[in-house]
Specification:
- It is a single chain.
- By secondary structure, the chain is of the alpha/beta class.
- It has 2 domains: 264 residues, 3-Layer(aba) Sandwich (Rossmann fold); 188 residues, Rossmann fold (3-Layer(aba) Sandwich).
- Helix content is 39%, strand content 20%.
- The chain has 19 helices and 18 strands.
- Helix 4 packs across helix 5, helix 5 crosses helix 6 and helix 11 runs parallel beside helix 12.
Length: 485
């Protein structure tokens, strides 16, 4: 009989997405099915999610879920089973899952996602007679309180459900004022350093990190980095104490969706043996961004335009990049000052730098298919997906040596080039000199066509499908549930 896992996440493709969490949560069910795992994904009932599932079966109701009526809807999206928490008082509002239309976080996010956690704990514990689960997998701070509710306020006394918490980005912790504790419907014993309390407040992510049977991060290097103060965001001591209960598993990508041979978004499909066809995509990209047609290196960046992602460094190196014969196309949104700096750079270098503020999924595919190299200068990066997409598309990644970027890109140093295994460019230190030097190295490699094509081919041959990562998650589930890994 398949092991039954409830995966609680605040977003998952194809229903709702703001970042990489959605890609992972959406891909896991199919990745795990081959390993004897039957995963059901539970999501909040945002308007877009409710609209997407259409007519759905109600499998449970709450008269007052932390004060609001709610019901649980069951649906199937493709081959995946989905549960949706329909609670209009919490989730039936315009804006993003976490903020209003102006970008300001909802003031009741603590109550919204505590309620989501309470509901996930109830369902994992058997509240809905038609549903039964062997394990709960919670993602990030928005679902982490489910683990606290299972530990301190289970549906029935003595209930013991194994739990896994995945940290997709430790920078987002869900810390709230201590006064909210009285409204969480947890016993007083939960207010302790061994429970939900952290730094004098209620820590949603900390609670899961403290109480989960197993904690995973989305790359092995990130799992090692977050025990250090510069990456641990104040939780490094607890992470170190959890020791072997913290493991890193690299994210995978959907090779059906991200396949340059069949991608309908591209002007021309291609494979490792037909890289020359990429030129049509490059020409289309130049036209879209108003760039001069040129056979020199075309860099791209697809990112949130924030300090974490090193987008401010792009403003600093624009003159260096253009001065050395490169051009740049940028897709993203974020910090207004960074956006203004990039737009000023585009105005300073017409025909050399193009900026598209916002997000466009199809355009991101076209950029991976037409760009020569992608810049990922993150100051920290738990895993990163954009460099994995780039590898699959023969767009050479230029990345900071940190987190999952370090785990997934092989630097084109002399030894790696000589051995024929390089897949991209790594650099130390997210600062001007590190990135500028990496750009110089990239342009030099681009001017060696044989080595460049070999580097592209190596990246396209790398296996970052979910097969191996799915097997690692399945082994953890089976171990915790008492099965044989």
């Amino acid at each position: 009989m398949a092991l039954r896992v409830l995966s609680a996440a605040s977003e998952a493709v194809p229903l709702i997405k703001t970042g990489g969490l959605a890609d992972v949560a959406g891909a896991l069910p199919a990745a795990l099915a081959a390993h004897g795992i039957a995963m059901t994904t539970m999501l909040p009932g945002y308007p877009a999610v409710i609209a997407a599932i259409g007519k759905a079966r109600c499998v449970h109701t709450w008269d007052a879920l932390l004060g609001e009526p709610a019901r649980l809807l069951a649906a199937q999206i493709g081959s995946n089973d989905v549960l949706v928490l329909d609670a209009p008082g919490y989730f039936g509002r315009a804006g993003t899952p976490y903020a209003d239309a102006s970008g300001k976080d909802w003031g009741d996010n603590w109550r919204r996602f505590a309620a989501f956690g309470r509901a996930a704990a109830d369902i994992a514990g058997g509240a809905a007679k038609a549903l039964s689960f062997d394990l709960l997998h919670a993602h990030d701070w928005q679902a982490a309180m489910a683990i606290a509710y299972l530990r301190f306020a289970p549906l029935r006394a003595g209930l013991r459900i194994p739990t896994v918490l995945t940290i997709h980005n430790l920078a987002f912790q869900g810390w709230f004022d201590p006064r909210i504790f009285a409204s969480l419907e947890l016993p007083g014993s939960a207010w302790s350093i061994d429970g939900v309390e952290t730094y004098g407040g209620v820590g949603f992510l900390k609670s899961g990190l403290q109480l989960a049977d197993m904690v995973t991060t989305v790359s092995p290097t990130y799992a090692r980095e977050i025990v250090r103060p510069e990456f641990g965001m104040g939780l490094e001591g607890l992470i170190a104490l959890r020791g072997d209960h913290v493991r890193g598993i690299v994210n995978g990508i959907d090779k059906a969706e991200w396949n340059p041979q069949t991608d309908p978004a591209l002007a021309a499909g291609y494979g490792p043996r037909s890289l020359g066809k990429r030129k049509a995509n490059k020409r289309a990209l130049e036209q879209h961004f108003g760039l001069e047609q040129d056979d020199g290196p075309l860099f791209i960046m697809i990112s949130r335009l924030t300090w974490q992602k090193g987008a401010d460094l792009i403003c600093e190196v624009l003159d260096h990049l253009v001065g050395n014969g490169g051009r740049l196309a940028i897709l993203g949104s974020g910090d207004p000052d960074i956006v203004a700096g990039l737009q000023a750079g585009a105005a300073r270098h017409p025909g050399k730098v193009g900026v598209h503020i916002g997000y466009d999924e199809a355009l991101s595919h076209r950029m991976q298919g037409g760009g020569d190299a992608i810049l990922v200068p993150s100051r920290f990066e738990p895993c990163g997906l954009t460099q994995l997409y780039a590898l699959a598309y023969g767009c050479v990644p230029v990345v900071t040596r940190t987190g999952g970027l370090s785990d997934t890109v092989i630097d084109a140093n002399p030894a790696a080039l000589g051995a024929g295994v390089a897949t991209g460019i790594q650099f130390d230190g997210a600062h001007y000199h590190g990135l500028a030097s990496a750009i110089t190295r990239t342009i030099a490699l681009y001017r060696q066509p044989g080595q460049w094509r070999r580097t592209q081919g190596n990246g396209m041959a790398a296996d970052f499908s979910w097969d191996r990562s799915g097997a690692e998650y399945a082994a953890i589930y089976q171990q915790l549930a008492g099965g044989t890994p």
